[in-house]
């Protein structure tokens, strides 16, 4: 069957309209840039990371990313994460926070909760980073009398183990 010009023209126009509709509605993934993130509740960060990963969000670390913020760098987060030359990543031993986000005191329960979070963070880091930051039991810790602001920082060439932003 031979199509008439009008039929062929209609098919072409419909194809173009559908293509334009698909391009317009296929929005590019958003980008989140981290420049001065001191961290916070690791459970809230984990929840936020899951939402960002589901949305296909790209994360650029372009400055300070400390404490729970380091969860963005997890190998299994599902995020497209890169670091810039200005990135500074800070690690410390977690404070005891339960799944409800309630900060626990310095009892054994708090220490166990902190140790669990620390091991999750540590386990998810690339091997080259693990060498730089040491094991969680060597990180600054309030349980050892360290200040809550004391961190083990990695930056510069030490961050080459992570994807570099282009």
Walk me through this protein's architecture.
The chain has 166 residues and is an alpha/beta fold. The chain has one domain. Helix content is 34%, strand content 17%. It has 4 helices and 5 strands, in the order αβαβββααβ. Strands 1, 2, 3, 4 and 5 form a 5-stranded mixed β-sheet that branches. β1, α2 and β2 form a beta-alpha-beta unit. The longest helix has 21 residues. The protein is globular and about 45 Å long. The relative contact order is 0.14.
User: Low-confidence spans: pLDDT under 50, at least 5 residues?
Assistant: 7-28
Helix content: 25-40%
Structural class call reads: alpha/beta
What is the molecular shape? Answer: globular
Largest β sheet strand count, sense and barrel closure: 5 strands, mixed
Straight-line distance between termini: 53 Å
Task: Note the total helix count.
Answer: 4
Q: Approximately how much beta-strand content do the residues carry?
A: 15-25%
How many structural domains? 1
What's the order of the H and E elements? HEHEEEHHE
Whole-number average pLDDT? 76
Strand elements, count: 5
Radius of gyration: 23 Å
